[in-house]
Amino acid sequence: MILLDGKKTAQDIKVEITAEVNKMKANGEKVPHLAALIVGSDGASLTYVGSKVKACELVGFESTLIKMPSTTSETELLKKIKELNQNDDIDGFIVQLPLPEQIDTQKVLMAICPSKDVDGFHPENFGKMALDMTTFIPATPFGILELLERYGVETKGKHTVVIGRSHIVGRPMSILMGRKGFPGNSTVTLTHSYTKNIAQITTQADIIISALGVPNYLKAEMVKDGAVIIDVGITRVPDETTEKGYVITGDVDFENVSKKASYITPVPGGVGPMTIAMLLKNTLLAREQRRVNN
Asked: Which architecture, in CATH terms, is 28-113?
């Protein structure tokens, strides 16, 4: 069993990006600038946004964090997005999800300028991805592809089963694994909460990508020997014996499934760190595109 070490791989990517930024600085060019917008004070979201800002500093990017109260109206948020769209100093920005219930998430994502949408959630970017055109790939699927590529995991002709159909991970992953090229060229089955006899499907899979958000859902008996396991799940499970009062758990029963897998991602330290690294990579791409187009 080989551990797909997202923490180490993300570190390698950050080193590569830092080298690119240093070249830009040496040439007197503007360095990439990422803005993050957060509405409200959800603990997990604040931690996540904070780590994105820290990552920017680490690689030499400019970063801006915009905090808005949870009472912010949809109109106020859309006005702020318009300002970011028009600000030439900012190359890319993200709106941290989830948003408070008075705000229509879809309307917000639609309002982001596609050329600054480094999360890859805008329908224009999602459509381009589906058509194999150059675009921003959502950071988590992008990170999974990068892990498979850097570890040389064979995907051609393989049967990939994706568990979960969210717009952020499951659906894009099902499209990307079936595309021409590497990683890709696999036969994809997309499963979800209404799929019957899911274990019959997963036991035939060469590659399983689980993005369900149900702790320890994928058990050893649902996996065949030698399967590649990508665990996207990340759930805080209460645990009084720990200092924080919780443990981070993935979708996969790691202890037992890892004994059968050929490759597996740990949680934490697998897909999570890759997501932030690929957000940085998308921001670098956004800066490059703006430089070419201006």
From this structure: 3-Layer(aba) Sandwich (3.40)
Domain boundary assignment for the chain: 28-113, 139-273
pTM for this prediction: 0.94
264 is in an annotated binding site: no
Per DSSP bridges, beta strands 92-95 and 207-210 are unpaired
165 is in an annotated binding site: yes
**Can you tell me the distance from the alpha carbon of 173 to that of 168, in angstroms, rounded to the nearest whole number?**
9
Q: Which CATH class is domain 139-273?
A: alpha beta
Which of 52, 80, 116, 158 is catalytic? The answer is 52
Query: What gap in Å lies between CA 237 and CA 60, rounded to an integer?
Result: 35
Told to judge if 96 belongs to the known catalytic residues of this protein, a careful annotator would answer yes
Query: Is 7 assigned a catalytic role?
Result: no
Query: Of 119, 206, 231, 251, which is the active-site residue?
Result: 119
pLDDT in tens, 204-222: 999 999 999 999 999 999 9
Q: Is 289 a catalytic residue?
A: no
